[in-house]
Amino acid sequence: MSPATPSATHVRQRLCQPFLLLTLVLLVACAPAELEPSAGDQLRLTRVPRATATAATLPADDPGATATPLPPPSGTPPGTPAPFHCADVTDIPVAECEAVVALYRQAGGPRWPRQDGWLRPPGPCAWFGVSCLDGHVDQLLLHDSGLAGTVPAALAQLTRLRLLVLGGNRLHGPIPPELGNLVNLENFNLSDNELSGPIPPELGRLTELTSLWLNVNQLSGPIPPELGNLVQLEYLYLSVNELSGPIPPTLGGLSRLRALWLGANRLSGPIPAELGALGALFQLFLNDNELSGPLPAALGDLGGLLELWINDNPLEGPLPATLTRLSLATFSFAGTGLCEPIDPSFQAWLDGIAGAGRSGLICE
Questions:
Q1: Which residue stretches of 165-274 are H helix?
Q2: pLDDT at residue number 364
Q3: Fewer CB atoms inside 10 A, N or C side of the chain?
């Protein structure tokens, strides 16, 4: 007896079954509608539409498996962090959180070389360069961190901030006068940026400041007399800008000042005699300006002074004999009209200064 002729369905099943576990594309080709094996065969494979076939799952070693499409992908790629909201932050005030976020957004945060934790939970206190103390932002330390943009006025919300260090970046535009509200600030460093415009007089309200670094920018206009209110100030760095006008005599009231850098600007007028009251001063840089007139004899009262730079100014007249009270390591008055007294004791004093830059003029 000849064997029974297999049905078309049975033949199709025998041909396609070995390939079903390898690819779903052959399954679609072999079963245009649905593959129904005989009742004794436990395999049942439901056809997968072409649009989702590549997302189907099918265990390779389970002949009874059903190919099931994965859920369609969501709009957010896997691994993308959830959106950050300051309203979810509980360890500092929302306004302080928003101020720190404003710095990130206005200063090119997405391009910073280091962004550890930024715009991610739990919040600013865990972000690189941000420190908190007693429920408030206490420090922003982002020196040389790739910041490029403007300084946000919103930083004024950080009323407990002690250290603001954003130097060595590419910040441009003005210094917001609102920063004068940071009355707990001790260290204010915006040096070595591209900041322009005036120094806000409002900075004179920062009476807890011990150091103010605004050097190497493009700041213009006068030095605000209000800076004389910074009675705790020890370091004032304003060199290498485009500041103009006179040196405010009020700076002579900064009794704790140790370093005063005003060089490489466009300052004019006389050197105030009031600077002779800065008894704690060890560095005085007034070089490369347009200062005129004589050198005040009161500078001889700066008993702790080690460096005196007044070179490259149209100063004139004799060097005062009171300078011999000073034990200077550097004294540069080259490029001025100041002349040296011929007195032997004065000449001996000058000869004893290792870093002397002399004008070459002898008083007649």
A1: none
A2: 87
A3: N
Q: Compute the average pLDDT of residues 77-81.
A: 52
Q: pLDDT by residue (tens digit) across 187-229?
A: 999 999 999 999 999 999 999 999 999 999 999 999 999 999 9
What is the rounded distance in angstroms from the CA atom of residue 310 to the CA atom of residue 323?
Answer: 13
Task: Give the separation between CA 46 and CA 160, rounded to whole angstroms.
Answer: 66
Instruction: Evaluate the omega torsion of the peptide bond into residue 69 and state whether it is cis, within 30 degrees of 0.
Output: no
Backbone region of residue 133 per phi and psi (left: phi > 0; alpha: psi in -120 to 50; beta: other values): beta
Of 127, 170, 177, which Cα lies nearest the Cα of 152? Answer: 177
What strand order describes the sheet that includes 307-309? Answer: 130-133, 136-141, 163-165, 187-189, 211-213, 235-237, 259-261, 283-285, 307-309, 330-332, 355-357
What are the CA-CA distances from residue 245 to residues 236, 267, 291 (Å)?
Answer: 17, 5, 9
Nearest Cα to 297, choosing from 280, 313, 317?
A: 317
Q: To the nearest whole percent, how much of the chain has pLDDT over 70?
A: 77
| Count of Cβ atoms closer than 10 Å to residue 18 Cβ | 9
User: pLDDT of 93-127, one tens digit each?
Assistant: 999 999 999 999 999 999 999 999 999 999 999 99
Output DSSP code: residue 4.
P
Q: Answer whether 248's CB lies under 8 Å from 271's CB.
A: no
Alpha-carbon distance of 324 to 95, in angstroms, equals: 56
Adjacent-strand bridge partners of 315: 293
C-beta neighbour count of 75 within 10 angstroms: 5
Q: What is the per-residue DSSP string for 299-317?
A: GGG-TT--EEE--SS-BEE
Instruction: Report the distance separating Cα 131 and Cα 136, nearest Å.
Output: 9
CB contact at 8 A, 327 and 304:
no
